[in-house]
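hey can u check if this looks right to u? its 432 residues, i copy pasted from the old doc so theres a chance i mangled smth
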Amino acid sequence: MRTDAWYGDRALTVPIPLSWDVSVFAPVVRNPLTDAQIMARLEAPVCQATIRELCRGKARPVVIADDLNRPTPASRVMPALLRQFEDAGIAPQDVGIVMASGTHGSPPVNAFAKKVGVEAARLCQLHLHDSERNLVNMGKTSFGTPVLVNKVVADSDFLVGIGGFYPNHSVGFGGGSKLALGVLGFHSIARLHWGHQSVGWGRSNGLNSFRRELDEIAQLIGLRSTVSLLLNADREVVEVSCGDPRAYYADLLGVAKDAYRAPLPDHRADVVISNAYPADVSLTFARMKAFHLLDAAPLRASRIAIASCSEGLGYHALFPFMNAPKYHRQRMMAMHARMLLGKPDVLAQKAFRRLAQQLSFRRGASSLTTRNPIWLFRPGGAARQPPLPAQIPGIRVTSSWDEVVEAVSLEQEDRDALRVEVYSCASMQWLG
């Protein structure tokens, strides 16, 4: 396995007791692409001309790239992209790069160099998106969502996006037009999440209403060309699709779903291990992206998460974990209420679902059994890592693998022969 995405991407080996019967599930993908193969993919876009042809005569081109909370190595694509810009007469100094951070926290100072490469970060104009400032209103979608977009993006005369294909709770799978969400204002992002029922992790055929609205927004802001990367468990690029995302999305989605599919934990499993790499930058995002596999573990199984959390707790303004600002809940409730008042059909559906959940909880309350806590193993030692909160609900944090093994032994009543299932790249895997 690997750990510490963006901060070394180190190989990780943990000693497993000989009596443990271990099964390891990992993505099944092709061999990594060479630079020449990536360049060839960009020379053969789907249902579009090449970037050099599309941007010829433009003066304000902008590249949108996701942030470090996504594992996309945009640096593998940027040299070929900048070469096409130069072929069209556009110098790197005239190319803007917007890091599409959505409502995520501020990245470290070297984030651009990590994401797009040292050369592109040195030569291009760099812009970090802020979901609360420097926004332009570009109208509304047919769903009624106001499209507040980053001003640099709105002022551009040519947009191209670089993103990856990963499982996602809201739309099933990211990629394609979902990159547009990262350059929107907070109000737009909140409306998008609240206006659609979540599809579920990996449960996507690309036709859900959230995806359709994202497609509409991408067209509205001018994001009609994207480069989408498929990665392996070592964060290496194994496939690239570029061109019109509406034309290539379905085919790449099918490849991604097959590559990242993993079996449900067996009902006889005694231990389930979820390695959050390559979304292990912070606890906030490791929890969002990898702990769902532990939720599927058998009731009495021991549950282990592995995440370096090199940036500590992390932050997501829409879904904060243990670090919400003052009055955050009240603000979200007020925004949500205003949106629902304008959508009585959605309000009725949500009220019905809430009632059904309450009734289901009451029926099952008598049979509830306390689960074992999640043991979060942070490789590398506590001295080199930012601290996490001393008390985290349902989670025990340690940098000692021996402590994890000892805790499992205690939870499993000192039984020697344990059935163990390991998801080596959990943040990119979905259960199906």
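The chain has a mean pLDDT of 92.
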